[in-house]
Amino acid sequence: GAGVSQSPSNKVTEKGKDVELRCDPISGHTALYWYRQSLGQGLEFLIYFQGNSAPDKSGLPSDRFSAERTGGSVSTLTIQRTQQEDSAVYLCASRVGGGVETQYFGPGTRLLVL
Amino acid sequence: AQSVAQPEDQVNVAEGNPLTVKCTYSVSGNPYLFWYVQYPNRGLQFLLKYITGDNLVKGSYGFEAEFNKSQTSFHLKKPSALVSDSALYFCAVRDIGDQTGANNLFFGTGTRLTVIP
Predict the structure, then answer these.
(1) Candidates B30, B42, B44, partner chain A, best to mutate (most A CBs within 10 A)
(2) B61 three-class SS
(3) Is B32 an 8 Å CB contact of chain A?
(4) What single DSSP character describes residue B30?
(5) How far from each other are the two terminal CA atoms of chain B, in whole angstroms?
(6) Residues 6+ apart with CB under 8 A from B95
(7) d(Cα A30, Cα A96) in Å, to the nearest integer?
(8) What is the pLDDT of residues B19-74, one digit of tens each?
(9) Does the CB of B78 have a partner CB in chain A at under 8 Å?
(10) Model pLDDT for residues A74-106, shown as the tens digit of each residue
């Protein structure tokens, strides 16, 4: 597809369960970001991948959060032992490369932890 | 430190009237500035950005924004609002001197624009 895609679009889980969120960036985009959007909050940066470099994990809120990017393309954000405060919309964005190129966002995954 | 403030959670404007959505920023160096729009149940869509050059930037759907360095502002404007402009608008900034490598954007908390028919 032409844009960033994310799956699932909605996820409801029980507290304590693990969840995996998927992001397919725009083909050829070497940079990939995960953000979290909570109700009434701005976007919170979580993690950044650029090519084959080590990811910037400085935004991950706890060690329950991790992300991988396989083959420089698809990325998976994993949340272990989910908590109710993890409920949010998780947005993925990709960008061509370095510099000031625009980030293009996917539709997000709306996560609800019961 | 980099930050963005959107002082208004909600802006209401009548259809056909001009609209302004405010944004101020704080960076240690010079800024790159962006506006994104989010429609219900959709991701963020890029509207426009300021990198350098002309302080007045024109973007998608008739929107424009003016970079004002002295006031550290980047307000979004449109001469005549449409009902279809109703959405959540986010301002974002990145410091040109950012050496972290992530080049990630710092977003405001968003302003919900409602255009009243």
Answers:
(1) B44
(2) helix
(3) yes
(4) P
(5) 41
(6) B2, B27, B28, B29, B30, B31, B32
(7) 6
(8) 999 999 998 888 899 999 998 877 889 999 998 889 999 998 999 999 999 999 99
(9) no
(10) 999 999 999 999 999 999 999 887 666 788 999
**Percent of chain B at pLDDT exceeding 70:** 94
Go through chain A and tell me how many residues it has. Answer: 114
Task: Return the amino acid letter for A24.
Answer: D
Q: Which residue has the tokens 């190129």?
A: A101
**For residues B74 and B65, what is the distance between their CA atoms, to the nearest angstrom?**
6
Chain B residues in contact with A48 by the CB 8 A cut-off are 102-104
Please answer yes or no on whether A45 and B104 come within 8 Å at the CB atom. yes
* Cα-Cα-Cα-Cα dihedral sign, residues B91, B109, A9, A33: positive
Task: Enumerate the residues of chain B whose CB falls inside 8 A of the CB of residue A108.
Answer: 42-43
